[in-house]
Amino acid sequence: MPATASSAAAPPAARLDASTLLWLLVAFSAVTLYPPGDVIATIRHLRVPDTDDAMRLVEARDLAAGQGWFDNVQARFLPPLGIASHWSRLVDAPIAGLILLLTPLLGRSLAEGVTLAIWPPLLFGVYGAVLFTGVRRTFGPRAAVLALLAATQTFGVTVQFAAGRIDHHGLQMIAILAMSLCLIRGGRAAGIGAGALAALSLAIGLEGLPSVALGALFVVGDWVLRGRVALPGFLGFGLGLGLAAPILFGAQTAPGLWSATACDALSPPWLWLAAGGAAAALACAGLDRRLGSIPARLACVAAIGIVLLGGFAALFPVCLGGPFPGMTPLVRDRWLLAVNEMSSVGKFVARGQWEVLVYYPVLALAALAASWAVLRGMQAHRRAHAVAALMLWPGLVIGWFQFRGIYVASGLIPLVAGPVLDRALGCAADRAAALRLRAGLAALAFGLVSTAWMIPAALGGLFQDGGRKAAEQNAFACLADTAVAPLAALAPGTVLAPIFMGPAILMLTPHAVVAAPYHRAIPGLTAALEGLGGIEADLRRQVEAHGVRYLVACLSQPAADLRGETAFATRLARGETRADWLEPLPLDGSVLKVWRVR
Length: 598
Known about the structure:
By secondary structure, the protein is mainly alpha-helical. 62% of the residues lie in helices and 4% in strands. The strands form two sheets. It has a five-stranded mixed β-sheet with strand order 4-3-5-7-6. The longest helix is centred in the N-terminal third of the chain and has 32 residues.
């Protein structure tokens, strides 16, 4: 056959369309979130990103081993009584279930490692499905794919779904995102769903309380402004929250504790507000026909709000001061306010921790962009932007003073970034669009991708104090399995160690600990601060008070000095002094200093 005929008969070269390319980019970005080295280290060495992940594994492990569902006491934490955890069994249960499911196939140790490795990407898949569905319904399919792409590049999101990240923040992020999307959709069914998801968030942890409160204010404000047409959403939210909250509370709380006030977990104070919200929705629904104007509806909800908040203050005054009642000044100043998640943006910058740049600016841009779109965007999208802005601003404000404020809010960033990226791409292809508009949208889209902020963060890191950076790396070394696991060879006993080491010791050894970074364990926190930061008499007093068998020191991160002189435990670790009542114990391969109490 002639060559020309052959060429004419050949099929055209296959080309990938833009949608397929975007999906391939999303898939590539998602896969690269889990480097093989990190996954292997998680499986083989139980490497976790945070102390909370280690403690979560300890709780799930105990539940899988037969600890009672309502028994949330960690017996090896500050023995002999232990510490009752305020964490939710709703988070422990699926992790424990995976461990039990995999143990017959892999053995207990490997089953735990595999669970640590697969649980976060499974949750990230759920987050992505919720995000994609919600954005597609409001903004279209391309914006939804771009929202997924933005999610894979948003550090505030990906850090909560990293390998080994089994703490509750990922689940809470999903619950608040799904609640927000239900609020955007509107209507009775979506309102019920939003209220139930708000209750789930509260049952998981109270970090989402500001978002839940603003969700309630949104449906109330919607009804005040629009009247009867917004009533189904208001009523649905109130009933969903009011019914689901006590059900979830009862499902994870021992009946004997149903009347106990806990300011740091779902309990009567917050059930009062949830039930009051349901009653308020029912009352407003009954009075709707008589409240024909905005002032009348506003007066009604204001009166109900005064009763609710006044009752809260009268019945539960202890919770007016926050979730940490009973915390001593020593523990607050020397521990709570010193941890990263309680630090302000100013403190991060002052300490040269420029990694804050990959988290905070993108959150600020998302809040500003959503707010601008409420005023100047398309009418059909203004409700979505209003909800997004409402959920982003609290994270922005709270996160300025306490870094943990950005955790839940970061999950809403892709909800804003996806549509912005979509519009920027559309505008770039439109030759009729003004150059100023195209340039502005391109800059905004670039700024909403938090990986772009790695550039200034990296530049700031060049000026970071080398000594501080080395100290942080050495502190992480004290948490590695190669450092902590050798302690397991010692006969079981109670360990007094730096506060940040407590969860790792519980996870990797059979020992008990005096201190770990949890606010309910005030005596243990005090013992670590005073014992490790004071003079020899302080250390000996705390050792005797808590039946300590082993003293452990991390040389790279000693306790803060409390007496105006170098702490005795620090000098002991440096070899500058000794004590006859402490016997040094050499541990092969460990970077820790360990002594047995004689």
